[in-house]
Amino acid sequence: MHQPFRKYRKRREYLEAAIPKGFHKKLLIFQVQVVGQIEYAPAEACGYPITGDDIIVMNCIWVLRTAKGRNLGKQLLTDMIQSEKKAVGFATIGLENHWSPWFKKWQMEKLGFKSLDSVKVMHKTKHKGERFRIHLMWLPTTKNANPPTWDKSKLLEGEDFCLAHPLYHPGKPKLKEILEKC
Question: Contact, 125 vs 149, CB < 8 A?
């Protein structure tokens, strides 16, 4: 098997572990062009420290600005929900006052998610001094569904399942945690 570049090693390791447990990635094609995508997995195979019974965690969702205004993000979410009929709900994160255009809390709210909890943090290596909030977002699909929980201390380590993610930890510098609570 061909080995990917070293910088993709963590991604490959994540996928090798997550795919057999139910990881999905779907591309959105509009007018013969990939304009968006969604990634999700059961809580036990997700990229975040989010746990819960019969919960699906959305690792990532994006739609290019060129495709804006067509409700394509909502279509991706609807497809995920319809594909995971046994799930009692869906969880993800939402960022507030973060410099990245991705995973904005208001975007997740527009898709129907509600914030259950949040933690105020600061990045140790990027945009030093800028504080932002990470929200645990929840979209139940059954009545009386038990909401997810998360491990905030593990969240401070960042994530390594996606190089483009706003909370990505590249492994350099050799910090255990790339975020600190404020």
Answer: no
Q: What are phi and psi of 138, to 5 degrees?
A: -140, 135
pTM: 0.91
**Residues with Cβ within 8 Å of residue 111, at least 6 apart in sequence:** 61, 73, 74, 77, 139
CATH superfamily of 6-181: Gcn5-related N-acetyltransferase (GNAT) (3.40.630.30)
Q: In the predicted model, is pLDDT for residue 2 greater than 90?
A: no
What does the domain layout of the chain look like in residue ranges?
A: 6-181
Burial of residue 163 (CB within 10 Å: 0-12, 13-18, 19+) is: exposed
pLDDT for 116 beyond 90: yes
CB 137 within 8 A of CB 147: no
State how far the Cα of 38 lies from the Cα of 162, in Å rounded to an integer.
13
Over residues 58-85, the pLDDT tens digits come to: 999 999 988 888 889 999 999 999 999 9
Residue 108's nearest CA partner among 163, 60, 40 is 60
